[in-house]
Amino acid sequence: MLITTSYDPLPEQLEQIALLQRQLTLLKGVDAPPRIIERRRYSMEQLWERYEDPDILLVTRRRIEYYHEQQPALFFHPSTAAIRVKRLRNGEQDTLMELAQTKPGDRILDCTAGLGSDAIVFSYASQATGAVVALESQPLPYLLLKQGLAAYQSDIDGLDEALRRIQVLQQDYMDFLHEQPDRSFDVLYFDPMFRKPIHESSSIKAIRKLADPRPVTDEAIREACRVASRAVIMKEHRDSGELERLGFNELHRSTTKIAYGVIRL
């Protein structure tokens, strides 16, 4: 992997790429230290050809972006979470928050955080008295999420505070669940890579290569039901059959291709 900056970098960008190199070297799942290179006036395509490495982390003045060949750039952004928070502020309902019966003070565990869209909404809905723990086992999504939650600034009241409250851990959710006492979280949430992909989603396409491809197991759901006190919720493609396989007895299929399974406790 290569790390570089945008054209004409500021001193803080140069400091950040050195910090990123150290951070990545320490993360689980990183086989070799990334290499810092000067951007000069090379395009992304020229960098790929010159250094014969398909993976580039680009530190811009606003954010960190990950490039892999011709895939869309991957970076942290609240995206649909910002829209959902705006709707909550306007008194509108959010399907996932309604299914979880989220309220101030709730403790939420997002077992498959990705880039954190649902964790952000959970954090906003559970407010300052609540707590959201977001688990991401894969190094690059974890790094982008952790950096983005700490640095992103929005113009939506309460959103920045919700971002900063989320605790992000690079940990396999099964290992984490085994360590937790019974009923230590109110709601556990899974949003794994869909068994039946939604190919038209560019954001999912960008992260699919980096994400944990393993399906959720029966053991994971049993452990989740032990650790949760109110509900275990899973998001999947509505036609995948995964929710039925795992024993979710309450199914909510939307008019899109998304479905939620709920186990009430």
UniProtKB/TrEMBL annotation:
SUPFAM superfamilies: S-adenosyl-L-methionine-dependent methyltransferases
Family annotation (Gene3D superfamilies): Vaccinia Virus protein VP39
CDD domains documented for this protein: AdoMet_MTases (cd02440)
Keywords: Methyltransferase, Transferase
InterPro entries in UniProt: 16SrRNA_methylTrfase_J (IPR007536), SAM-dependent_MTases_sf (IPR029063)
MF annotations from Gene Ontology: rRNA (guanine-N2-)-methyltransferase activity
PANTHER family: RIBOSOMAL RNA SMALL SUBUNIT METHYLTRANSFERASE J
UniProt name for this protein: SAM-dependent methyltransferase
Source organism (scientific name): Paenibacillus rigui
